[in-house]
From TrEMBL:
Gene3D superfamilies: Amino acid/polyamine transporter I. InterPro entries: AA/rel_permease1. The keyword Iron-sulfur does not apply. Keywords: Membrane, Transmembrane, Transmembrane helix, Transport. The keyword Transmembrane applies. The chain crosses the membrane at residues 20-39, 46-67, 87-106, 127-149, 179-201. It holds the Pfam family AA_permease_2. One of its GO terms (cellular component) is membrane. This is Amino acid transporter. Signal peptide: none annotated. It is found in: Membrane.
């Protein structure tokens, strides 16, 4: 997404190269690893930041799209299907298209791996998972319907120089590079915080598996270092 933001802000001078994305992915992974190694006690702060960005960012993206985007008739949005992937079957195309959006609904699983650090986990954890699924599912459905109404010309969006169709939708809807950049930065911030949380979740999985002697070098991986809390 950062590459897409650069592309819309510097369309004349920036030339995309695949290795740009590779370096950015490595950088984010290293930052997330360092955060969980040296600043693990700040993880609740990151979770709080994610919640705030999630709530305000949802409306910060939804409202401009509904207000500024030209919208087609509802019959066109809900009554037409286009198989742009060349699958040859509308049902199969829909199922394949669900692979991306369904990722937003698997987040509750992450909380399970943090259960040993939760007070009253047998009660708090199931409630957290259920409400996360309900809230994210509801807001996700609203956002998907919104994008379906605001996507505009699909061919133009898919050929976007940003490499991300939704960034082009933001740009087309608002007509402003700054607005599209701001809306994209909201998503980038959430993705970055999510990367930190994912590393935290993964570390707990590795520790638990190593503790049960399920990994090579289990004796080393099952050791937990003590860091002074700040």
């Amino acid at each position: 997404m950062m590459v897409g933001v650069v592309a819309i802000n510097y369309p004349e001078t920036y030339t995309y190269e695949p290795w740009h994305v590779t370096l950015l992915v490595i950088a984010v992974a290293l930052i997330a690893l360092l955060f969980n190694t040296l600043l693990a006690q700040k993880l609740p702060l990151i979770e709080g930041i994610i919640l705030v960005i999630h709530c305000f960012g949802f409306f910060g993206i939804l409202i401009p799209l509904w207000v500024l985007s030209p919208r087609p008739a509802a019959s066109e949005v809900f009554g037409s299907i286009e198989d742009r992937g060349g699958w040859g079957n509308n049902g199969l195309a829909c199922l394949v298209g669900l692979v991306g959006p369904i990722y937003a609904l698997i987040g509750p699983d992450s909380a399970v791996h943090m259960s040993e650090e939760i007070r009253d986990a047998s009660r708090v954890l199931p409630l957290g998972m259920i409400w996360t699924l309900i809230l994210n599912g509801s807001t996700g459905f609203v956002m998907i319907v919104t994008l379906a109404f605001c996507v505009g010309d699909i061919d133009t969006v898919l050929k976007s120089q940003t490499g991300f169709a939704f960034i082009q939708v933001f740009l087309n809807s608002t007509g402003s590079v700054r607005a599209a950049t701001g809306m994209t930065v909201v998503i980038m911030a959430m993705q970055f915080c999510a990367a930190i949380s994912n590393v935290a979740t993964t570390s707990r999985q590795v520790y638990a598996f190593a503790r049960d002697k399920g990994l090579p070098f289990s004796n080393f991986l099952s050791k937990v270092g003590l860091f002074p809390s700040g």
